[in-house]
Design goal:
It is a single chain. The protein has 4 domains: 6-131, 3-Layer(aba) Sandwich (Rossmann fold), CATH 3.40.50; 141-308, P-loop containing nucleotide triphosphate hydrolases (Rossmann fold), CATH 3.40.50; 313-406, Helicase, Ruva Protein, domain 3, CATH 1.10.8; 409-485, Arc Repressor Mutant, subunit A (Orthogonal Bundle). The protein is of the alpha/beta class. It contains 18 helices and 20 strands. The radius of gyration is 26 Å and the shape is elongated. The chain has helices at 14-26, 37-46, 63-72, 88-96, 109-131, 146-159, 175-185, 203-211, 228-231, 247-259, 285-290, 296-302, 316-334, 343-351, 357-371, 437-451, 456-463, 467-484, and strands at residues 6-10, 30-34, 51-55, 78-83, 101-104, 137-138, 141-142, 165-168, 193-197, 212-213, 225-226, 236-240, 261-263, 270-272, 276-281, 305-308, 340-341, 376-377, 417-418, 427-428. α1 links the parallel β1 and β2 (30-34). The model is unreliable at 388-431 (pLDDT under 50). Helices cover 44% and strands 15% of the residues. It comes from Kiloniella spongiae. One of its GO terms (biological process) is regulation of DNA-templated transcription. Keywords: Activator, ATP-binding, DNA-binding, Nucleotide-binding, Phosphoprotein, Transcription, Transcription regulation, Two-component regulatory system.
Length: 485
């Protein structure tokens, strides 16, 4: 029989510790119970534990100190915080310090076992990622989060293939960086990488940009010109914002992908090239197909290997790492002495939702370095994250469901908003009575948690958000309910 995973229970109330131990034993989990922080630190020093059930209120120290030690020493253990109703805010903060999940007293045996089981699975997945050798930098990407490790592996696998790759993600998430990474990892790396933005070129000129033209093909065609397809011969053609392409040109692109041949505009001579096509969009391609704006046959021809880049707000553990890299690079480029962030600046950066994603973070850091002096970049040097107008307004108020600061506290809808599908959600407009979006969001999240039998991690996975997002929102909801009561 395989050795059962070992669990460390840190609980100073003997009666509760006995109940939790019996819950675990009935499900086949071995546990060791200690009643103080000192004992917990000793047991952790011995090693061998996969999960810690940690009460924050211990007789000799704050449980947060143990959590910090686990984080600082990078111990391979998942920490589950046990807390009372009065310390939910502390529990949310503990999630920022690396806790995997938290249990709010009182909780049932089922809730405890589901949480422990998920924590053990999380540890197994983490070890798999570690075994693959965690990468913090990858062909222009910065980030060591699980989501990015998965993307790096997909790029590794896709690079050697000839299949088309379809990259999706919000504006500013690094779709062109992803396309270039695929090219650099591929056998075509020594050949050209040619990017073409389908949304930045007038549709009348788009065919010529892709396939080229001959002299006299149209007004202004004063000579023969090779298009992107010819320029990329042997290499990779990257079609960014592919969903902006005109339907007529989509037909010609489909024929080109199927045969590898094309005619320049104004020419009857058939030309052939050997290229790998990578495309990207910040829209939902399936929704574009359903709306009739994108050919279904072209979609399935292009959507062979899909890669979805997560928004920066769903990469909590990567945000500061990326910001530090930008700080060092831009300080050197601008001849400044900045080397680090203050604690307040770190908190501000981590708490912001970054609706403009990595591009916005990049601009904010560069802006702050150019306009300030010193070795430590402080919160006062980041006014755009405090809601002050500093030229970054293009990222504020333009993202559905965010307030003027770009933060996640959402309470108003713009003119017309299409809410999540469901029996009681529908398209609404200014003329109808509007329920604040945070209430609708609260109901949706609470329904998901209830459907998952209280398992917040599972609910977050199904909602395609981080568990820490739910914990933060629970705190926000309490504040909003106080204001509206």
């Amino acid at each position: 029989m395989a050795e059962t995973p070992s669990i460390l229970l840190v609980e100073d109330t003997a009666s509760l510790a006995a109940v939790y131990t019996s819950y675990l034993k009935r499900s086949g989990y071995e546990s060791t119970q200690v009643m103080s922080g000192k004992e917990a630190l000793h047991e952790l020093g011995e090693g061998g534990y996969r999960v810690i059930l940690l009460d924050l209120q211990l007789p000799d120290m704050d449980g947060i100190e143990i959590l910090r030690m686990v984080q600082e020493q990078k111990l391979p253990v998942a920490v589950v915080i046990i807390t009372s109703n009065a310390s939910v805010n502390v529990a949310v903060e503990s999630m920022r310090l690396g806790a995997y999940d938290f249990l709010e007293k009182p909780f049932s045996a089922d809730r405890l076992i589901v949480t422990v089981r998920n924590a053990l699975k999380h540890m197994q997945l983490s070890e798999m990622v570690e075994a693959i050798k965690e990468r913090t930098h990858f062909y222009g990407f910065i980030g060591s989060s699980f989501a990015m490790q998965s993307i790096y592996r997909t790029i590794d696998s896709a690079a050697t293939s000839k299949a088309t790759v379809f990259i999706t993600g919000e504006s500013g998430t690094g779709k062109e960086v992803c396309a270039e990474a695929i090219h650099k990892c591929s056998p075509r790396a020594e050949k050209p990488f040619v990017p073409l933005n389908c949304g930045a070129i007038p549709k009348d000129l788009m065919e010529s940009e892709i396939f080229g033209h001959v002299k006299g093909a149209f007004t202004g065609a004063i000579g023969n010109r090779d298009g992107a397809a010819t320029q990329a011969d042997g290499g990779t053609l990257f079609l960014d914002e592919i969903c902006e392409m005109d339907l007529d040109l989509q037909t010609k692109l489909l024929r080109f992908i199927q045969s590898g041949t094309f005619n320049k505009v104004g020419s009857t001579r058939l030309e052939k090239v050997n290229i790998r096509i990578v495309c990207a969009t910040n829209r939902s391609p399936l929704q574009e197909v359903q709306a009739g704006r994108f050919r279904e046959d072209l979609y399935y021809r292009l959507h062979v290997i899909p890669i979805h880049l997560p928004p920066l707000r769903d990469r909590d553990e990567d945000i500061l790492e990326i910001a530090k890299s930008f700080l060092i690079d831009y300080a050197k480029e601008e001849g400044k002495e900045f080397k680090s962030f203050s604690a307040e600046a770190i908190e501000l950066i981590n708490n912001y939702s970054w609706p403009g994603n990595i591009r916005q973070l990049q601009n904010v850091i560069r802006n702050s370095i150019v306009l300030n002096e010193g070795q430590v970049l402080t919160a006062d040097m980041l006014p755009s994250l405090r809601g002050v107008n500093t030229g970054f307004s293009e990222y504020k108020g333009n993202v559905p469901g965010r307030n003027v600061d770009g933060n996640r506290d959402r309470s108003k809808l713009d003119a017309v908003e299409l809410l999540p599908s469901g029996n009681h959600f529908a398209e609404i407009s200014q003329s109808t009575e509007i329920t604040p979006l945070w209430m609708v969001e609260k109901e949706a999240i609470e329904t998901a948690i209830k459907t998952c039998d209280g398992n917040i991690v599972k609910a977050a996975s199904l909602l395609d958000i981080n568990p820490s997002t739910i914990y933060r929102k629970k705190v926000q909801w309490k504040e909003l309910e106080k204001k509206t009561s």
